[in-house]
Amino acid sequence: CTGNGICKCRVCECFPNFTGSACDCSLDTFPCMASNGQICNGRGTCECGTCNCTDPKFQGPTCEMCQTCLGVCAEHKDCVQCRAFDKGEKKETCAQECMHFNMTRVESRDKLPQPGQPDPLSHCKEKDVDDCWFYFTYSVNSNGEPNVHVVE
């Protein structure tokens, strides 16, 4: 019974938190906990203490790795551009597609939030439609609300 149960009449009686014919399946979900506090990052099921990712794009022990996904910066670039500067690919659909984050304008790059704050933070440097660089940070607070700080 793999040390997780007692064999009685050739049948394993599993200790609490174990199941399976040989008690080799842990019901503990802690190994499946992703960094965002969700089981398998909300993209899979925890089976025997291992994530089975249901979204094929995501892999890894907690379904957090995505080789084909855009980074945070590229993903939000168009919305930051239309909200902050009223231009870019989403200029016409900005009000419908880009109101999902709180936006704060700052005067210069040194006024952007810096690493070391409690919320995960991405520093972004992207090119706009006029081939100029613009800078912003993207973070998600403890309430799950996305916050963007953009240099004017």
What is the gist of this entry?
This protein is 12% helix and 33% strand.
Structural overview:
InterPro entries: EGF_extracell, Integrin_bsu, Integrin_bsu_tail, Integrin_bsu_tail_dom_sf, Integrin_I-EGF_CS. Keywords: Disulfide bond, EGF-like domain, Glycoprotein, Membrane, Repeat, Signal, Transmembrane, Transmembrane helix. GO terms for molecular function: C-X3-C chemokine binding; collagen binding involved in cell-matrix adhesion; fibronectin binding; integrin binding; laminin binding; protein kinase binding. The protein is mainly beta and 152 residues long. It has two domains: 5-65, Laminin (Ribbon), CATH 2.10.25.10; 67-151, Hormone receptor fold. Helices cover 12% and strands 33% of the residues. It has two helices and twelve strands, in the order ββββββββααββββ. The protein has helices at residues 72-85, 94-97; strands spanning 5-8, 11-14, 18-19, 25-26, 44-47, 50-53, 58-59, 65-66, 102-106, 121-127, 133-140, 146-151. It has a four-stranded mixed sheet with strand order 9-12-11-10, with helices on one face. A two-stranded antiparallel ribbon has the order 1-2. β10 (121-127) and β11 form a beta hairpin. The mean pLDDT is 88.
CATH architecture of the largest domain: Irregular
Q: What's the order of the H and E elements?
A: EEEEEEEEHHEEEE
Question: How much β-strand is present in the residues?
Answer: 25-35%
- Please state the structural category: mainly beta
CATH topology tier name of the largest domain: Hormone receptor fold
Tally of contiguous helical segments: 2
Shape: elongated
Using the coordinates above, name the CATH class of the largest domain.
Answer: Few Secondary Structures
User: Count the strands?
Assistant: 12
Q: Output the strand order for the largest sheet.
A: 9-12-11-10
Estimate nothing, just give the exact number of structural domains.
2
What do the pLDDT scores average to?
Answer: 88
Proportion in helices: 10-25%
Rg from Cα: 23 Å
Distance between the termini: 64 Å
Largest pleated sheet: 4 strands, mixed
Q: Regions with pLDDT < 50 over 5+ consecutive residues? A: none
